[in-house]
Amino acid sequence: MADADLVPSLHGDAAFSSPIKNHKEDMQPVADKIAELNESQSELLGRLRGLKEDLQNWRLKLDTQVKTYKDELLDLKKALGSEMEQLTLDFQELRTTLQKQQDDVAASLRDLGMSTKSEKEENAAIKEVSIEKIKSNEDS
């Protein structure tokens, strides 16, 4: 029986039950850590989902703003093009009007200059005729 004392009994021997008890006690902190890590992981995944949603919302808003600005710029470009076209037409019309006025003034000045020349020529011709008449009257 001396050998029986050396082998622990299966029922309630302190030497045998102690390692199982210690093993369960050692497992508890590990299980707590696993639970804590799972909870932390869940929180992180939730925050990540929230950040993804925020990013998608931000992109959607940004895309909307970019489209709005592009549309506004396109409208402004069209309006500017239209105004430039109108200004070009107005300047062409003004140029034509100024050219016509310049031509009219030049024609009026030519007419005045010719009239003055013509009158001088007529006066000179009349004087010559008068002088010739006087000379012919003197000769007769």
UniProtKB/TrEMBL annotation:
Compositionally skewed regions (Basic and acidic residues) per UniProt: 117-140
Region of interest (Disordered), residue spans: 1-23, 109-140
Keywords from the named record: Coiled coil
Domain of life: Eukaryota
Coiled coil stretches, renumbered: 34-104
Keyword set includes Coiled coil: yes
Xref: PANTHER family: UVEAL AUTOANTIGEN WITH COILED-COIL/ANKYRIN (PTHR34681), UVEAL AUTOANTIGEN WITH COILED-COIL_ANKYRIN (PTHR34681:SF2)
Protein name per UniProt: Uveal autoantigen with coiled-coil/ankyrin
